[in-house]
Design goal:
The structure is a single chain. With about 375 residues, the protein is an all-alpha fold. It folds into two domains: about 15-160, Up-down Bundle (A middle domain of Talin 1), CATH 1.20.1420.10; about 165-360, I/LWEQ domain (Up-down Bundle). Helix content is about 65%, strand content about 0%. It has ten helices and no strands. It has helices at about 15-35, 45-70, 75-100, 105-135, 140-155, 165-190, 230-265, 275-300, 305-330, 335-350. Helix 2 (about 45-70) runs antiparallel to helix 3 (about 75-100) and helix 2 packs antiparallel against helix 5. The radius of gyration is 28 Å and the shape is elongated. Its main location: cytoplasm.
Length: about 375
């Protein structure tokens, strides 16, 4: 004899699952289409329009949350709710795609990432709602509202997405600064003794490279690690100086770009015709950060070949940054000064580990002739 009284699955559950699936697939296909920026010949959708459509998605999520967590209506009404929500979501994605007209790689990444956040939250909402419906779960009123909230948060995050290529690139450079700051902080914690006789924590011109919340930390309280020889300690201190000057170089690059935008008198569209140069500049900044991180990791191993390889790529990074900035115009005097200081730190490290890293770069010129 079969037992009765267990949880009874709600009628129409399978039918709703079949109805939802093609809507999920359509959104997935649209998101895949967004993996490439929209063709340049199309009319660009302003990001403010995307944000407005995000608010519509958020309101639809509120409605869906109320429908699926309350006293459930009939299957046809639930189908209507699904169709209405995903029609709005599709319109939102198409607007996102339209906003990528003229977008460089960095802005495109910000846009697609934010769109995916809204899609992922939406999928989670309906998959959970349908699962709770099919199983007849009595917990619908408590488990669905929090997932609805994730859709709200994803839509709210749209307001923080950069609206232009230049702002997107500047924000990405700022993140590189944060990474370099973290690397420098870790380097300053190395047990290599007092570093007041080096440039660690300062830029090449003597100014502080970055304000740290833990700036009162001192190497003088740290005893020299028994695993470090005097020569290795000298190398470690020079790597700290290189890290500090790399941070200063990226900061001055950001200041240069900001100044360039302000001097144009039209920040919303400023330098959008120079996106390729700015993207290249960002790429060089990333390479610099990566190689500085490699240098930091080599402090304990003290492998000269690894250090030389990193130094060589850092020289290439400096040269590339100079070339791109020269092509952007403006007044790059302070940026060039920071690059010169960075180059001097590299040369000092190069000499300390024994020989020139790249003889062909001995006459590297920072400022244009």
């Amino acid at each position: 004899m079969s037992k009765k009284g267990g949880k009874k699955a709600t009628a129409g559950g399978g039918e709703l699952s079949r109805f939802l699936q093609p809507h999920l697939q359509t959104i997935t296909d649209t998101l895949q289409m967004m993996s490439e920026a929209a063709p340049g010949g199309l009319e660009r959708t302003e990001w403010s329009e995307v944000v407005a459509l995000g608010d519509v998605v958020s309101r639809q999520a509120t409605v869906a949350g109320m429908v699926w967590s309350g006293d459930l209506p009939g299957v046809e009404t639930l189908k209507e709710n699904i169709a209405a929500y995903f029609n709005v979501l599709q319109g939102f994605l198409l607007a996102c795609h339209g906003s990528t007209v003229g977008a460089g790689p960095t802005l495109h990444k910000y846009i697609t990432s934010s769109a995916k956040g809204v899609v992922d939250a939406s999928f989670s909402l309906f998959k959970l709602a349908l699962s709770a419906y099919e199983s007849g779960s009595p917990d619908r009123k408590t488990i669905i509202p929090p997932v609805t909230g994730t859709v709200w948060e994803a839509c709210l995050a749209l307001k923080k997405v950069p609206a232009t290529n230049c702002i997107a690139i500047g924000r990405a450079m700022t993140q590189i600064c944060v990474c370099l700051k973290d690397i420098l902080r870790e380097m300053k914690e190395l047990p290599v003794g007092d570093s007041d006789d080096t440039k660690a924590g300062k830029s090449s011109n003597g100014d502080a490279a970055m304000s740290f919340s833990d700036k009162d930390e001192s190497f003088s309280d740290l005893e020299e690690d028994e695993g470090f020889t005097e020569e290795e300690i000298a190398v470690a201190k020079l790597i700290i100086a290189v890290t500090a000057d790399s941070l200063d170089a990226v900061k001055e690059t950001i200041r240069f770009i900001t100044s360039l935008l302000k001097s144009s008198g039209n920040q919303s569209g400023a330098a959008e015709d120079k996106v390729e140069s700015m993207e290249n500049l960002l790429s060089h900044c990333r390479d610099v950060a990566d190689q500085v991180n490699e240098l930091g990791a080599s402090v304990y191993a003290q492998d000269p070949s690894e250090m030389k390889s990193a130094i060589k790529r850092l020289y290439v990074g400096i040269t590339g940054m100079c070339q791109e900035i020269a092509g952007l115009g403006g007044s790059p005097k302070n940026a060039y000064a920071a690059f010169s200081g960075f180059e001097k730190s590299l040369k000092a490290l190069e000499e300390e580990i024994g020989e020139d890293v790249v003889d062909e770069m001995k006459n590297l010129t920072i400022s244009p002739s």
